[in-house]
Amino acid sequence: MIEAVGLTKRYGDKTAVYNLSFQVRPGAVTGFLGPNGSGKSTTMRMILGLDNPSAGTVTIGGHPYGKLPNAPRQVGALLDAKAVHGGRSARNHLLSLAQLSGIPARRVDEVLGVVGLQEVAKRRSKGFSLGMGQRLGIAAALLGDPQVLLFDEPVNGLDPEGILWVRNLMKALAAEGRTVFVSSHLMSEMALTADHLIVIGRGQLLADMSVTDFISANSADFARVRTPGTEPQQREKLTSALTEAGGHVLPEPDGALRVTGLPLPRISDLAHEADVRLWELSPHRASLEEAYMRMTQGAVDYRSTIDQKAGLMQPLPPGAQPPAQVPGQGQPGWYAPPPPQQGGQPFAPPQPPAPGQAPYGAAPQPYGAPGAVNPYAQPVPPAPAQPSAAPAAPENSAPTKSEDAR
């Protein structure tokens, strides 16, 4: 078990973690959540003895990490997957860690098989992709078969198959009675993996509860109700009935109604009593992401803004008009007009069709039909000019040289 009591860490005049207290119990996957800069990485470094706390204590199994006998056999961690000597192969990297901790060499081959790196075990790690580096880091964490495991962004760079594998691995390790502490920014993955959550913001504890309780405490469930769109009077009748019964009704942009304060069976009964047909009556359960955003919205240090592109806009010359919006632009099925022809008009009027061509805008004729143009035919070059007889001279023209000779 990991236990932090009054944990505080200061860097000069900046307090990264302040008076943080929590417990990470065995037998469950505990998610560690918080915005960027909230102190998650600092907290995990203090757990592993990489940073000394300014105040408070943090212990693993009742002892600080530095006082654990043969700590790598009891605690495994992945904080930085790039903390590997690039000139070593994957196997040699794990073998060096095993020799430092008194772990037999056969365990190296076992964990390589667990993470799926057997075929690249002799390749240098500097040529590994981000996902392969993550797998190697997880293998290093599992090397001593520890009872306590800490992972910082373990699915970073993994493909969907790898993410599913990590999820199942975390659950399997917790099911064996181990303590699993996972930090991640992927709310959808935490919702599927974690059993318990510890949420911090600006270095302070915001929540320490199960995933289900966290979602319930930081979100409002509601019901979506939809009536026939062709009968607006039924929508108004239902709104009045729900409001009189103590419900709170808000219109949705798509025409549905968002109802809070009434359970679904009561909404159905009220609609039946008001003789209103329902096209939809469905519950809405908030996701972990929605609950997390609502909880931490006041603890975010780095907020993005809309890019106005003001510094990239060129001023229009005097007397110029801004370009007009093309009708239909941005709508489905809209395509930009063809570029103007070289030296021609941007939108020249259609010319009369050439012999054998279909009129402009007419449906093309099937290939082989009478009068159809073969789209694959090569253009026929013009026939060479044939010599023709000399044109007759005008009646009053001057005599030619040959006539003078006669």
UniProtKB/TrEMBL annotation:
Highest rank taxon of the organism: Bacteria
Keywords, ordered alphabetically: ATP-binding, Nucleotide-binding, Transport
SMART domains referenced in this protein's UniProt entry, alphabetically: AAA
Biased composition (Low complexity): 357-377, 386-399
Residue segments, region Disordered: 311-406
Entry protein name: ABC transporter domain-containing protein
UniProt cross-references to InterPro entries, sorted A to Z: AAA+_ATPase (IPR003593), ABC_transporter-like_ATP-bd (IPR003439), P-loop_NTPase (IPR027417)
